[in-house]
C-alpha cells in the first residue's frame, strides 16, 4: 500500500468515526476522490475484494443470490429496486435483465472496475457488488437482501476474485463526446418531419444520432408541436397524482453504464430536505430536486398511438429521470397517464 492510499484509508476511517451514517459516495466527495478510489483503498481480499472484469458472467451468476436490491444513480436521482436478477440476455455491447421487478439496460463499455464490499451501517453488515466507470464513478450496485444467501455470495466472490488484491486504484477521465450540431446547423423542417414519422419510442434515440442533435435542443425545436417546457418541480405533483389516482408508471434512471426501470404503481411519497422520495416496499426513488434545471412533456408518435413522457434534466442538460405511463408494446397509452401529463402542460 503506497502512502497516498494508506492516507486515504485512514482519512476515511476517521470520517466514519465522526459520522457513522456517512455513505461512501459522500465520503469520497469530502475527500476529493472518486468513489472507486476510496473503496479500493480498503481492498484487502476479504471485506473488500477486487473482481475480475468478467461482467457478463458475474451478472449471470447474480441470480444465485436470490432476492437482491439493484441500485443505479446519477447526481440527482437514485433508483433502488428489489427483485431477482433473472432472464439475463446479451446483445452487442448491451446486456438486459428482464425480471418482473429488476429491469435493466446495461452498457458494458462503461464497466471498468468491480468490487465485492462488506459495508457496515447501523443496521449491520451489507454485502454488495459495486461496479464503476473508468473515472471511478459508480454505474451500478447490487445488495444482498437475504442472509440465507451469504454462502452463495461468498462463492460468487471467490469465483470472480481478481488475482491482484492490493489496495489502490488508478482512474482516468472519460473521453469527451463528439460535439453536437448547433440549433442553427439543424434542418428544423426535416427534423420535425422525421419526428412525425416515428413508429416506436425506441426510434427516438437513433433519430437524434442521425441528426447529431442534443436531446434538449431537439425538444426546443419541437416545442409546442411535440414537446412542452414545464416547471421541473411539477415532478412532485405528477407523482402525487399518479399515487392518488392509482395510475401505474414507468420510472427510468440512468448512470453512464446502466438504465434502471421501475414499472408499476407508486404509493408512499415523502419530502426529506432537498430530496423528494418514493418509499415503497420494493421500489425507492430519491430525487434531489434542487439539482433539477428543466423538464419537458414529450410526445412521440408510435404505431400504438402517441406515447407521452416527462423528462427532467440537470444544469448540464443531462437526463436526471424520465417517466412514462406503464405500458407494453402493442398497447395504447393509459388514459390516466395522458390526463396527468395534459394537466401538467395546462
From TrEMBL:
Q: Which domain of life is it from?
A: Bacteria
**InterPro entries, per database record:** Heme_Transport_Util_sf, HemS/ChuX_dom
Query: What residue ranges carry the coiled-coil annotation?
Result: none
Haemin-degrading HemS/ChuX domain span? 32-160, 212-344
Q: What would be one Pfam family of this protein?
A: HemS
Quote the protein name from its UniProt record.
Haemin-degrading HemS/ChuX domain-containing protein
Amino acid at each position: 500500500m503506497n502512502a497516498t492510499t494508506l492516507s486515504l484509508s485512514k482519512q476515511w476511517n476517521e470520517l466514519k468515526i465522526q459520522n457513522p451514517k456517512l455513505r461512501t459516495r459522500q465520503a469520497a466527495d469530502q475527500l476529493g476522490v472518486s468513489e472507486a478510489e476510496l473503496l479500493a483503498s480498503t481492498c484487502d481480499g476479504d471485506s473488500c475484494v477486487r473482481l475480475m472484469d468478467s461482467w457478463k458472467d458475474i451478472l449471470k451468476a447474480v441470480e444465485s443470490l436470490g432476492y437482491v436490491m439493484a441500485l443505479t444513480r446519477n447526481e440527482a436521482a437514485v433508483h433502488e429496486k428489489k427483485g431477482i436478477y433473472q432472464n439475463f440476455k446479451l446483445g452487442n455491447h448491451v446486456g438486459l435483465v428482464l425480471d418482473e421487478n429488476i429491469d435493466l439496460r446495461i452498457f458494458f463499455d462503461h464497466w471498468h472496475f468491480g468490487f465485492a464490499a462488506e459495508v457496515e451501517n447501523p443496521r449491520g453488515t451489507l454485502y454488495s457488488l459495486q461496479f464503476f466507470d473508468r473515472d471511478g464513478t459508480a454505474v451500478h450496485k447490487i445488495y444482498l437482501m437475504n442472509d440465507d444467501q451469504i454462502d452463495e455470495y461468498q462463492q460468487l466472490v471467490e469465483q470472480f476474485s481478481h488475482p491482484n488484491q492490493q489496495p489502490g486504484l488508478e482512474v482516468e477521465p472519460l473521453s469527451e463526446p463528439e460535439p453536437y450540431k448547433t440549433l442553427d446547423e439543424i434542418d428544423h423542417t426535416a427534423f420535425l418531419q422525421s419526428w412525425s414519422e416515428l413508429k416506436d419510442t425506441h426510434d427516438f434515440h437513433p433519430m437524434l444520432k442521425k441528426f447529431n442533435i442534443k436531446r434538449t435542443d431537439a425538444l426546443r425545436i419541437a416545442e409546442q408541436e411535440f414537446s412542452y417546457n414545464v416547471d421541473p418541480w411539477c415532478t412532485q405533483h405528477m407523482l402525487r397524482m399518479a399515487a392518488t389516482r392509482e395510475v401505474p408508471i414507468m420510472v427510468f434512471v440512468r448512470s453512464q453504464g446502466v438504465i434502471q426501470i421501475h414499472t408499476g404503481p407508486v404509493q408512499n411519497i415523502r419530502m426529506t430536505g432537498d430530496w423528494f422520495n418514493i418509499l415503497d416496499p420494493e421500489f425507492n426513488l430519491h430525487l434531489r430536486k434542487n439539482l433539477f434545471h428543466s423538464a419537458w412533456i414529450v410526445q412521440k408518435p408510435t404505431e400504438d398511438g402517441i406515447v407521452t413522457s416527462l423528462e427532467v434534466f440537470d444544469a448540464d442538460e443531462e437526463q436526471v429521470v424520465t417517466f412514462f405511463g406503464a405500458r407494453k408494446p402493442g398497447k395504447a397509452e393509459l388514459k390516466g397517464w395522458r390526463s396527468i401529463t395534459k394537466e401538467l402542460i395546462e
